[in-house]
Design goal:
The structure is a homodimer. With about 350 residues, the first copy, chain A, is α/β, with parallel strands linked by helices. Chain A has 13 helices and twelve strands. Chain A binds a DNA duplex (16 and 16 nucleotides) through helix 3 and helix 5.
DNA sequence: TTGTACGCGTTATCAA
DNA sequence: TTGATAACGCGTACAA
């Protein structure tokens, strides 16, 4: 769809249905017998209004049920006090927590958030971004589902000056801030934990490497293997998506290899992928961690509950959301807020699936 | 806070920071050398424009990066294509699923959703409702966290003509539609399942009874007990909130009773409450279901994973969201869409915690 | 202290 | 086929 086409047909509405019944400044003014400006001053708590008129106006406004029209205000001020939030998968428990953090930061500052879940569909992501632009959001928070290599779309938005902050899944070196965690280090550490169990053949279930977390976590794995002089067998590295189904498919790809080259342990790019892989392992009649050990990344709400509790990396989801929103708001309200990449600290959570 | 006071101070912004850089119809018109109306007609795919001018305008618009300003459109049309969604607890896995369903219905129709999580705080709920009204949302979807008995606030909103649909947690007989599940029947059935295990002393961990689900589920429990001539011991009925902590506290209240009157089984108003109660039971050194059996309601993502898998009622969360949003949109777009209460069908999921 | 005039970006309406 | 004008609700700037 084109940026400049307009899907909504306002013609279809007749005068009738448009009547909202909302009271305006003017109506209050007429009721009291003053000008709209005087009412405006009272409503906005501005000085230079006689106490008596102020009282009269407040009374009338309350009685008539006046509510300020932010749409009109926004048109005048070019500020909507609205932020667009785009997440790839609302069912992944990490994201609701992030949203909770975002809310925490935005509500204090009286911003409202437009939430959209793209279900990892980049087409939808673009469509929504355009809608948000038309709605004139003050800024955008996005965890991108990069199923394409074409960043020009984001470049355009950023160049247009619309404040944008990535969280979790960002695009690097594109001129926007990104709030994430120390993916590479954490990924290296959890791989090293596996190595400390004396496993040699360690596979990797990767996410798309063009997304920040996909790349960083993969690099952490590679670094660990290299540091410990372990062979990196390309056949044991499967790239797929970030959800359970993808993990299931990826693991089955590994299990389709000749048994002699099977990995003894597997690092998954995140917990949902690990859960999917665990299903595949179990279905193959194998045991975790005795036949194949596995670790994840996220500390999903289910990680400690699954049959063989998952060793994983705990991410401060709430903090990520809160920090990202704060950063965005600062970028909105402050002309020269710098672009920065923030890495929050994670924590290794050792359970059973690694063999401990 | 008052309905008519205005928190945002637009004065603080200077001209500079207000400049958005967005292209307007007028600018495109000037570039091409036509009137704004002609450009408007082209952008909105309206007839009566010469093919040549249409082409020229589309080209210019694209080159200049024109994006329609929905704020201005909304001011004219009194329609924002925006819906407010209020949920009490985003961390409860039921709600993200509902939101996914809402999205499904709204995105097809080109509505955007304002999401707010009230953390079960009715004060915040009211504050947000006012903000949404000021933003002139076309309608509101709410699962209310009724920590008060004062419905006048909602009555006012509904009377004002702003379309509003409750989902899951609604207020009855107040003139708004409500999309939920067959709470009473399901609650009766799951209680009867417990009764089929020959338990006599069955307690109930209730939510607030003034909320639809609180009342209905409680009534289902009572009905089951009555039908089977079992004694309803008031001491075994604890009313508290809907989350894990509340369940934990409520169960401990039961366990503080003399041992002779302890319940042999417990019905929880929802899964989070059941999880909290399970923690309390375990901490008391008791075993589930041998010492105390327990059942829930929701089929939370964790229900099948906990130490003793939870017998519960599966709710079609996604469907609830989708139906509620569709109903709201119909109410918005159709003057005489009737008010209705819809009950979706649930499914009993038998696992271990009931004693099976 | 209060009011008037104008503009924000768009569209409906009517005239050319 | 095109354009001029008014209106949506509000706030700034300035005048009274």
């Amino acid at each position: 769809m084109s940026t400049i086409t307009n899907k909504i047909n306002y013609q279809q509405m007749d005068k009738e249905s448009r009547r909202t019944g909302n009271i305006t400044l003017k109506e209050v003014a007429e009721a009291v017998g003053v000008s709209t400006m005087t009412v405006s001053r009272v409503i906005n708590n501005r000085p230079n209004v006689d106490e008596k008129t102020r009282k009269k106006i407040l009374e009338a406004a309350k009685k008539m049920g006046y509510t300020p029209n932010h749409v009109a205000k926004s048109l005048v001020s070019s500020r909507t006090y609205t932020i667009g939030v785009i997440i790839p998968e609302i069912s992944h428990s990490f994201f609701p927590e992030v949203v909770r953090g975002i809310e925490e930061a935005t509500n204090n500052k009286n911003y409202q958030i437009f939430l959209t879940n793209t279900s990892d569909n980049f087409g939808k992501e673009q469509k929504v971004l355009n809608a948000l632009r038309s709605k004139r959001v003050d800024g955008i928070l996005v965890s991108s589902s990069l199923t394409t290599d074409d960043f020009s779309f984001y470049k355009l938005i950023i160049k247009s000056g619309l404040p944008l902050v990535f969280f979790d899944r960002g695009i690097e070196d594109i001129g926007a801030s990104c709030i994430g965690v120390n993916d590479k280090t954490a990924s290296r550490q959890i791989t090293e934990h596996l190595i400390s169990h004396k496993y040699k053949r360690i596979g990797y279930l990767s996410g798309p490497k063009r997304v920040s977390i996909g790349k960083e976590r993969f690099n952490g794995y590679i670094e660990a293997m290299t540091r410990h002089n372990l062979e990196i067998d390309e056949r044991l590295i499967i790239e797929n998506g970030f959800n359970e189904k993808c993990g299931y498919a990826a693991m089955n790809e590994l299990l389709a290899l000749p048994k002699e080259i099977w990995p003894r342990a597997v690092v998954a790019v995140n917990d949902p992928v690990a859960f999917g892989a665990m299903d595949a392992i179990r279905e193959a009649g194998l045991s975790i961690p005795n036949d194949i050990a596995i670790v994840g990344f996220t500390d999903d709400i289910r990680a400690k509950l699954v049959a063989c509790p998952l060793t994983t990396v705990q991410q401060p989801a709430y903090e990520v959301g809160k920090k990202a929103a704060s950063k965005l708001i600062r970028t909105i309200e402050n002309k020269d807020e710098p672009v920065e990449t923030v890495e929050l600290i994670t924590k290794l959570v050792i359970r059973k699936s690694c063999g401990c």
